[in-house]
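Researcher: Structure prediction, please.
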Amino acid sequence: MKSTKFNYKGLALGLSAALFITSCQIDESQQMEIQEETDVLNATVSLDNFFFYDDLEGSNPLKGVHVQNSTSYGMNIVSNNVFKGSKAIRMELRDTDELTANGTRTELLFGKVDAAKEKWYSFAAYFPSDGYKMDRSNEIITQWHQGGKSPALSLRVQDDKFCIRTLHENPDIKWKYTYFGNFVKDKWTELVFHVVHSGGSDGLVEIWQNGTKVLTHKGKNTWDDADLPNWKIGIYKAIWNKSTTDTDRRVVYYDNIKIGNKNISFEEMISDVTFDLLPSLDLNIEKETSISVVDATTETIYDEEMHPGEIYWFSRIGTEKLNFVANVDDLVKRVKFKVFKEQSNGSYAEIRSSEDKRAPFCLFGDNGKGNYYYGDPLNKGKYKIYVYTYADEEGKVAIGETFSSSFKLY
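Model: Predicted structure follows.
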């Protein structure tokens, strides 16, 4: 069983843009996102519009940055896989790692640099295929952290897709997940963030990937009852605090870490590196995904919108030949379905996966003329269905939130 362990290693350290951080106090929050409150001194720097800039090439990289890590392999400066120059940070997290700061993490915590709400952030990251297998459970790779609360703004990876998690505009829904960009392994990716930190409608998050704008998100992105956030980069996988997932290891390399003030230019935040071209996309999904249930014998909609826990009785529908249609935003060009069925031991096993790149987007397909197929019909039991949406027909550019729902067939 894991035990809480505090190991604030001093990783070899510095740059003239130093951040000075003092003690760390621990608090717990909801949703297994156990975070730490920090007491930090304001940092002062003199690099024009940069609050912090470290390309790791100096003799003392990351001086003063607070390290949260419990293992010798968790965080190291390396020279065998770099973005620019001769050095990068290699981070590794395993599901058996001792907890540090009450969580399964290897992260760098930056101090408060300025009281202004508007800032820029950037870093380059590399995800090796042999150290970053696909996992249905997400993990944080950078977050904006406000004391003992779950981060109101964080960048995550789930199912080999980038995802920004923010506070939802609907007060009855806590989190909003927005998928974006092109998650690529075995190549460096540079991400630039322009953030107006706010608990109101004036909040803004803009993201560029390898120089291409991939996301604009407007609305609240901070808790309004807490101080402005500290920035953290590194890996935090909350579910590993208490459980296991599809994989047991995460390796990420980081390089060229920057924090800029509101007056900095985009050109100063991005590196002079040539990347593979990405689709020129600035995608904002307005319509949330939903599922309709179709009677495939009469080609009619039986239920316009499935709700979690919905029960469908074959005797009332009049058939067991059903299809499931994803109702999506017009920007969506491809849809992936995954269906899981409850097993005798209470766990769920995947029983079907399919993709459709032509509307209407159906689990079992259709002929495009109102004839819905039913394939190998689902029989009685408890199910979970997931719907993933993409902006391109190849299924490389994920957008929108992943839809999920449970339902029962009797």
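Model: Residues 290-409 form a domain with the Immunoglobulin-like fold (CATH 2.60.40).
Researcher: Thanks, that helps.
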